[in-house]
Amino acid sequence: MPKFSLAAGLTGERYLQSTGKTRLQFAKSARFAIVSPMQKLPRSFYDRDTIVVAKELLGKFLIHISDGVERVGRIVETEAYLGPHDLAAHSARGMTERNRVMFGPPGHAYVYFIYGMYFCMNVVTESKGRAAAVLLRALEPVKNISDRSCGPGLLCRAMKIDRRLNGHDLLSADFFVAAGTKTEAFKMVKRPRIGVDYAKHWARRHLRFYIAGNPCISRE
Q: What is the number of structural domains in the chain?
């Protein structure tokens, strides 16, 4: 199981052991547990530089309402994929049926299937045709999330996100990203993206962002 760092020098696992809490109990007791009412992010939020969007998604809330259940998670880890020139991006291979959504317009969900078992969710960024997106890597559970969400595949499983949501407009009423009523300061960490060793020099770019000290990130 991955370990997670805290500002005090403890790993997330050791921190949780010291408090006697599970990740879910940690989230429930956090100050972010009450997030209503929230303000849905406008299209203009996504129609900006992808790195800026990836950083500013931290601390925002992903909401999915399905089968009458509202699931809410706080975004704590993201990765930026900058377009066809970024060798780690799906769009580096050109437009295909699989990645067509990534080419825009912004503010839509790009959901794909990997390893024959996991879905991953991205938010499409920048103007139509730029083919850039931000991968959501980890959530802090807030409401109606009982499964682990510390990794893109686990995140989608916990939030009941699958291929049916590919291309879904994130300004809809049932699947969107929102800002809470209060903004809490946090330290952001930058690291190379995970699992992109094939992308040559792009593999070394610090395009993964996470909230320091949060026990729900996928990896330090």
A: 1
